[in-house]
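Contributing new records

If you add data, match the layout below exactly. Sequence lines come first and carry their own label; structure lines follow with theirs. Keep one chain per record. Anything else will be rejected by the validation script.
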Amino acid sequence: MKAKILIVDDIRFFLDVQQGMLDRIDCDILTARSGLDALKVIKKEKPQLVLLDYNMPDLTGDKACEIIKGDPRFKDIPIMILSSDHQQDTKSRCLSAGADHYLTKPIDRTEFIQVVGKLLKIRGSLYYPRALLRTEVYVRYTGEIKRYRSVDISVTGIFLETDEPLPIHKTYTVHFTIPIPKRDVRAEARVTKIVTAEDREKLGLFSGMALEFLNLDLEDRRYIDEYVEKAVSIRKRTLGEKDHRISFI
């Protein structure tokens, strides 16, 4: 199932810029040229993410956000408001209206992609399939390098098998190799979840730690996505109609 992302901006140039930035994310792009049009699209399409311009002639971004978040049917849809206004009070007003993130223009592509990924995960990570990956992963923290073995991977993160997990919410540098197509990947990541030996016995999982990628290069993301797609396809053929999903994060 692809995520639906609604881009709302009254200026065609900014619609095109954001669409171009999203071209490597497996999603369906919807567009609207005003706040009122956005409300109509949301009611019809129920997108999983709304990218909302602040400066629009009919409804400002914060007002449109208030309306969307005030509707019980759509209150859980993540909203990012984009604006050329760098004033703190404008940002505060948008966040108070219910926006999940406020991003200033000109848009930084890397930050934009990272925020989009994080906001989509608010909806339960339904749009990021995972695949088994048993390979060595090197993790650097405070000058020390430790070696682990991975369990599975997606474009959002990787799970490492270990009985001695690293501190949670800390940032680390990870280095590993995607086998097919072969590519070395380096990225910043943070530990977001720990599965203990007790959890393993109860749930039948690997003990270890889940790491979320923080600044994954777009080309690395493409290679991981291609690997996951191939691995899931092979697993589907092997298992037939059985459930092929695997998720440790």
